[in-house]
Amino acid sequence: xxxxxxxxxxxxxxxxxxxxxxxxxxxxxxxxxxxxxxxxxxxxxxxxxxxxxxxxxxxxxxxxxxxxxxxxxxxxxxxxxxxxxxxxxxxxxxxxxxxxxxxxxxxxxxxxxxxxxxxxxxxxxxxxxxxxxxxxxxxxxxxxxxxxxxxxxxxxxxxxxxxxxxxxxxxxxxxxxxxxxxxxxxxxxxxxxxxxxxxxxxxxxxxxxxxxxxxxxxxxxxxxxxxxxxxxxxxxxxxxxxxxxxxxxxxxxxxxxxxxxxxxxxxxxxxxxxxxxxxxxxxxxxxxxxxxxxxxxxxxxxxxxxxxxxxxxxxxxxxxxxxxxxxxxxxxxxxxxxxxxxxxxxxxxxxxxxxxxxxxxxxxxxxxxxxxxxxxxxxxxxxxxxxxxxxxxxxxxxxxxxxxxxxxxxxxxxxxxxxxxxxxxxxxxxxxxxxxxxxxxxxxxxxxxxxxxxxxxxxxxxxxxxxxxxxxxxxxxx
Length: 478
Hints:
The protein has 10 helices and 22 strands. It has helices at residues 5-16, 45-59, 98-106, 108-114, 204-215, 235-249, 273-281, 387-392, 413-430, 436-446; strands at residues 22-25, 32-42, 70-71, 81-85, 119-126, 138-139, 161-166, 184-185, 219-224, 232-234, 254-257, 261-262, 285-289, 299-300, 314-320, 339-342, 346-351, 357-360, 401-404, 406-410, 450-453, 456-459. The two termini are 16 Å apart.
């Protein structure tokens, strides 16, 4: 039986958010993860309308409990949303929460009258975008240089572009990599387990910081461990955490964000409304990952790039495969993805510079690409057996362990994103442009690079120091 990557990752996220019962959604499929028994609504009068409408509907439904409907978070806060309980989160299983689905359907008439959404699920936002990582890190040979290699540009603290990476924290030995000499921020909390083995997603933020610094050495990169706990956070908390990140040091030139979720809608995340509105009024450019589910469904907050008023404020980034000519098998795609950058088998700093550090794989590879592509993609190469896969479907395989000694190869739109952010920062330095949004416009206007993604001719940003990785085509028997 093939690994069930989404379900495996659900188990991992549920363990990290052990006090929050979770379900898969929407009602009849597994496209995202959300909190059971709760919906989100905007503070104030709209929350009151949601509460009263759902309670009235549940009163007439014999299989629903109206007494469950009540607010379970402060009525007002900076994020502009409040959590409203609509059911018993302890009931049902992971396959979905009927109470949440029926509460949302009960609001359709009221939403129609008002002309906008009044409530939503409380989604899980994850750095394993779409809850499925592009792959897991692979040790890079000691003789291999970072890819992209460091651009030939100096560092000037007076003109350095400020880049905020909202992710996991910095590894303790990140300073051993010269390109990260000007990087600061939060330390990674608990890098290893009790046996000294790297925990899943540890080093994600450090890897991203290394990519930004390679493409744009004249940057002051700050890494915040906003998504430290298995890379997952509830939508209701995410906006507040983003506010905390920018409040600490002020709004940066660029935010590089390799996290998000789909929600089955085309109008954004309710829990991010307040943050995105404030972002729109700032000068900061948000560069956001498009997601790793090989889907055209909008992925947030990246898909804000095509919403009115956000076109200049957000740059959504998809991933190209190793040769940079076509889309990576896992990359989300569609008109809401504004640009693509290499995102497969990139090489950057992870950990192990001071002493080798072991890692045990969590997900088994597939026999063939899980998205139907016919090249040797990261779904299947390099092959390994993972702990979470074996826990669901025992094959008598022993999970593979590797040792990291500094650098790693890693794939995902998570890593195409900092390449695009670095591109914008490098353009700002080269052209003495102080406005990151103007730099974004200029860069896309003068860009002559293109690639093919799902038959579409799309803009591609390929750093000058990035080296293509050979792509192996597989025969029909593979």
